Amino acid sequence: MKSNPDGTFSDGALVPFGTIEINPHSSVLNYGQGLFEGMKAYRTPTGEVQIFRPEENAFRMQMGAERLLMAAPSVEQYVDAIKQVVRANIRWVPPHGKGTLYIRPLLFGSGSVMGIAPAPQTTFLIFTNPIGNAYKGSSASLSLLVHDSLPRAFPGGTGGVKNISNYSPVFQVVKEAKCKGFSDVLFLDAVEHKYVEEVSSCNAFIVKGNKISTSPTLGTILPGITRKSILQLALELGYQAEERRFSVDELLEADEVFCTGTAVSISDVCSATYKDRKVEFKTGENTVTRKLSEMIRGIQNGLTEDNRGWVVKID
Ligand code: PMP
Predict the structure, then answer these.
(1) Structure confidence by residue, pLDDT tens digits, 7-42
(2) Ligand 1 midpoint to CA 20 (Å)
(3) pTM of the model
(4) Closest CA to 287 of 141, 139, 133, 99
(5) Active-site annotation holder among 2, 83, 162, 282
(6) Does the structure's ipTM exceed the value 0.85?
(7) Contact 95/107 with Cβ under 8 angstroms?
(8) Which of 203, 221, 231 to mutate to test the pocket of ligand 1 (most atoms within 8 A of CB)?
(9) Distance from the CA of 115 to the center of ligand 1, in angstroms?
(10) Where does the record locate the signal sequence feature (predicted)?
């Protein structure tokens, strides 16, 4: 961390940022009973601060909590807590265009459990950290390595929620891909090893002509908030936007490929490599990706007026 932001929300109160005590018997330490969220606070050109669709993050945390048998804050409690933390850290929100304040909510089983069981008590915590525009993964185009043996998630598992335990199993393959010069890994489905699922921390889309497709979440893919917003914006722009399963072969035939997520907003994909075959895609000016990117970034950072009720101002 570059700096210690001023306030952290911990179980109903704003406290200074610092280390926390945790029971060694807690279910998060022993069984990975935990969820996280990722959000950003943006400074608009007029200096106001705003956040993007926080109710969606609250709702996703509730879905995750249901799956992991934890009590979750209500949507109102969640959004109110986010606002309190951003307000307390308002001086850390970078100037318009110079970065954002990243917001990391956590919900985890902090109560003591002896058997393999959910904790009787949970902790809801939010911390923040200012990040620049060059936040890892948000730079120009991504080169993806398609992984054909290790799936990111299994049917019936927890791939559809932001379970903390979903992430460490892919550290190894992502690290290997990065060592080979790729930006990230694109994962396929666990059954046929053929259908495109998602990248390690973003959703994947393909563009072919006027058609924009992303895989249906089906419990193995995280229902990204950027993904949902892009599907709507694409329809508004007159594209045929759909959730549809597509194979890696179809991806390799696409005109454009892009990824969506809070960290990257939209990142275009310059190439995908599958079984030693590297295919390049259109990027940059005059692409569908660029059009969508300008639209969503404009709404998020306040350059464009929001008439969809997506933006929440911090007063
Ligand atoms: N997939 C995964 C696995 C992720 O971790 C993320 C980041 N939250 C996303 C997709 C994108 O979701 P969102 O647009 O809500 O950030």
Answers:
(1) 888 888 899 998 999 999 999 999 999 999 999 999
(2) 26
(3) 0.96
(4) 141
(5) 162
(6) yes
(7) no
(8) 203
(9) 31
(10) none
Q: Is the dihedral of CA 207, 210, 212, 213 positive or negative?
A: negative
For the stretch 236-287, pLDDT in tens is 999 999 999 999 999 999 999 999 999 989 999 999 999 999 999 999 999 9
Secondary element (H or E) of residue 102: strand 100-109
Would the pLDDT of 1 be above 70?
A: no
Q: What is the DSSP secondary-structure string of 286-305?
A: T-HHHHHHHHHHHHHTTSS-
Out of 3.10.20.880, 3.20.10.10, 2.30.30.140, 3.30.420.280, the CATH code matching 142-299 is: 3.20.10.10
If one residue of 184, 200, 220, 262 were mutated to test the ligand 1 pocket, choosing by the most ligand atoms within 8 A of its CB, it would be 262
CA distance 252 to 256: 9
| Phi, psi dihedrals of residue 39, rounded to the nearest 5° | -140, 175
Which part of the chain has CATH 3.30.470.10?
8-131
Q: Quick check: helix, strand or coil at residue 236?
A: helix
Report the separation in Å between the CA atom of 263 and the middle of ligand 1, taken as the mean of its atom positions.
8
In this predicted model, what pLDDT tens digit does every residue of 50-88 receive, in sequence order?
A: 999 999 999 999 999 999 999 999 999 999 999 999 999
Secondary structure (3-state) at 160: coil
**Which amino acid, 190?**
A
Does the pLDDT value for residue 137 go beyond 90? no
Active-site residue flag, 162: yes
* Backbone dihedral region for residue 275 (phi beyond 0: left; psi -120 to 50: alpha; all else: beta): left
